[in-house]
Every structure is written in C-alpha cells, then in structure tokens.
Write a structure and sequence with these properties.
Layout lengths: L5 E5 L4 E6 L10 H15 L6 E5 L4 E3 L4 H4 L4 H7 L2 H8 L5 E5 L2 E3 L1 H8 L2 E5 L3 E3 L13 H9 L1 H10 L3 E2 H6 L5 E3 L4 H13 L3 H16 L4
Parallel strand pairs: 2-3, 3-5, 4-6, 5-7, 6-8, 7-10
Antiparallel strand pairs: 1-2, 8-9
Helix pairs in contact: 1-4, 6-7
Bound molecules: acetoacetyl-coenzyme A.
Length: about 220
C-alpha cells in the first residue's frame, strides 16, 4: 500500500495505523486523501492479520476539515456528482474497530471522521468543532446526526449554530471521547488500547461493534 496523503503501518500485534499526512494544510481532507483513506481502510478491513485500526494525524492536527480551497470553486451540482458520501459510507462500513487518536484540531470533516470511529482517545491539546456555519455551509459528513446523539441536542445545536471550538476536557465530560492523555503519549495510549482489543476474540469484537453501532442507527419512537 503506497499513498501520497496517508501513511499506513501494520504491526505484528494485529494493529494497523493510518496516519493522515498533509501537515502543511493541517491534514485538510481533500478528495485524494479521502480516496486513499477509503482504499486503505477497505484493504485493512479485508486483511485477516489486522484486528484493529488506529486513525491519527499529527500533534498539531488530526484534521482541520474538508479542504476549503478545493471546495470553494465548486457548485452544488459538481459536488453532488462527485458523490463524496460514497467515501464516508465506506468508512462507516468498516467492520473492525476504528480508534481515532486525536491531537490538535479536529474540525468540520475532521471531527466527523473522529466521530465515525468507534473510540476517540484525545490528547489534552485536542480541539474539536463544527465551524462550517462560519463559511455558510453545514456539517456535511454526519456531524448534524452524530453530535446530538453523542452529546445531546442542546449542546450540539449550540456548537453547530455558533461554530465554536470545544476542548478535549469538554469532549471528555460530554462523553464524546473516552480518555484524555498528555500530548506526548496520545498515540502510545491509543496503540495500547488497540493492542488490548486486538488480543480479544475477533468475531466477538466485530459483532459487539456492530451491535453497539446499531444503537445509534435506530430511532426511539
Ligand atoms: N482546508 C484547506 N486548508 C486549510 C484548512 C482547510 N480546512 N485548514 C487549514 N488550512 C491551511 C491554511 O490555509 C494554511 O495554509 P497556508 O499556510 O498555505 O495559508 C495552513 O493550513 C495552516 O493554517 P493556519 O495558518 O490557518 O493555522 P492557524 O493555526 O492560524 O489556524 C485553524 C488553524 C483555526 C484550524 C484555521 O486554519 C481554520 O480555521 N481552518 C479552517 C477550519 C474549518 O473551517 N474547517 C471546516 C471545513 S468545511 C467541512 O469540513 C465540511 C464538512 O463537513 C465535510
């Protein structure tokens, strides 16, 4: 697997690491990166030696959202025809556990990518947010659905309508992330957790993931 915008590493423990790698633009999610991410996740999901996948960025940014410069000149029809939801759907279909190891900015599509993962480990420098409203759009990759389910309607509404960033501490208190650790060890901690899960019976792990995620798809009438 050789890519230009992500780095993929497989460990003997059954853990694979996918690192978003456009540091100059804070890992902005352009079409190439999203295509490569989808391809890598599909391959890792089909690889029997891989049990758990960790998605990370760098210390400054997990991802600062969709690539605004790429998005800006495009009209609604062009965006529709590109069918970017196909990529996001593919990520949602990954059956193996996905752990997001987040440091620095996780904004817009970056926050949505983290929320699409099954577990989020955050460094104490992590800053989350859905700032799309400030550029006249709405969270386009599930943020309007994930946030209210994960942190409640009132907070989600406030954060999406104001676009304000929120800290790792807030995210932890609201249940969005499962652990905050110092920035120096956030990836190490995520890998430790990934290794522990990778040592569990794999079919039960995948079924448990599927069952828990079903709780977020069904509606309470
Ligand atoms: N797209 C493209 N480039 C981006 C980017 C993005 N989302 N975020 C940052 N960059 C680029 C900057 O343009 C800059 O590049 P240059 O040096 O070439 O100018 C570089 O990354 C560093 O960024 P800053 O100089 O702005 O760094 P900062 O520390 O001063 O600010 C920041 C950091 C607050 C995250 C700021 O960059 C920012 O507000 N970025 C935009 C965040 C945003 O609005 N994200 C939502 C995008 S829309 C979306 O995601 C839709 C969806 O739901 C899928």
């Amino acid at each position: 697997m050789s890519y230009e915008t992500i780095l993929v590493e497989r460990k003997d423990s059954g853990v694979a690491i996918v690192r978003l790698n456009r540091p100059k633009v804070l890992n902005a999610l352009n079409r190439q990166l999203m295509g490569e991410l989808r391809d890598a996740l599909e391959q890792l999901d089909n690889d029997e030696a891989v049990k758990v996948i960790v998605i990370t960025g760098n210390e400054r940014a997990f991802a600062a959202g969709a690539d605004i410069k790429e998005m800006a000149p495009k009209g609604a029809i062009e965006m529709y025809l590109e069918d970017q939801f196909r990529t996001w759907d593919a990520i949602r279909r990954v059956r193996k556990p996905l752990i997001a190891a987040v440091s620095g900015y996780a904004l817009g599509g970056g926050a949505e990518l983290a929320m699409m993962c099954d577990i989020i480990i955050a460094s104490d420098t992590a800053q989350f947010g859905q700032p799309e409203i400030k550029i006249g759009v709405i969270p386009g990759a599930g943020g309007t659905q994930w946030l209210p389910r994960l942190i409640g309607k009132s907070r989600a509404m406030e954060l999406i309508l104001t676009g304000r960033m929120f800290s790792a501490k807030e995210a932890y208190e609201w249940g969005l992330v499962s652990k905050i650790v110092p920035a120096e060890i956030y990836l190490e901690e995520a890998l430790k957790m990934a290794e522990e899960i990778a040592s569990m019976p794999p079919v039960a792990v995948q079924l448990a993931k599927e069952a828990i995620n079903y709780a977020y798809q069904s509606f309470i009438m």
